[in-house]
Design brief:
With 134 residues, this protein is of the alpha/beta class. It has a single domain, classed as STAS domain (Transcription Regulator spoIIAA), CATH 3.30.750.24. 31% of the residues lie in helices and 26% in strands. 37% of the residues are buried. Belongs to the anti-sigma-factor antagonist family. InterPro entries: Anti-sigma_ant, STAS_dom, STAS_dom_sf. This is Anti-sigma factor antagonist.
């Protein structure tokens, strides 16, 4: 059952669970105006005991460097809790943000939340983060 964890006029963050993963669906731009809403939503979920996340970006038309920085900050918090993070639906435009930020090899990318949650989380999900940055 999906529930809304944060909503503003510009962005909505909802979540669901599947196969040990907390799927965080973001709907709206992740930028200088909205990044804090996403960060606070994930911090809240971490506080509630969630550790293994799929960040679903399928409904995100735009991601800027502030949004990328927020994903990095979220990743650090998840890693500190020995959790995992997977990212879904990066458009070509969004993938360029990860490439230009030097983080395209640091994350596991999937085409859909269903694909990302097929395998249950492992204990070493972020063991090598930030990964081999090229």
């Amino acid at each position: 059952m999906r529930w809304t964890i944060a909503r503003t006029d510009q962005i909505a963050v909802s979540c669901d669970t599947a196969n040990g993963w907390t799927v965080v669906e973001v709907d709206g731009d992740v930028d200088v105006h909205t990044h804090a809403t996403l960060r606070q939503a994930v911090i809240r979920l971490l506080g509630e005991g969630h550790r293994n996340f799929v960040l679903d970006l399928c409904f995100v038309p735009f991601l800027d460097s502030m949004g990328l920085g927020t994903i990095v900050a979220i990743t650090k918090r998840i890693k500190a809790r020995e959790g995992s993070l997977r990212i879904t639906c990066p458009s070509a435009r969004m993938a360029r943000v990860f490439v230009h930020g030097g983080l395209s090899n640091a994350y596991e990318f999937y085409d859909s939340p269903q694909e990302a949650t097929e395998q249950a989380p492992t204990v070493d999900g972020l063991a090598y983060w930030p990964g081999p940055i090229r």
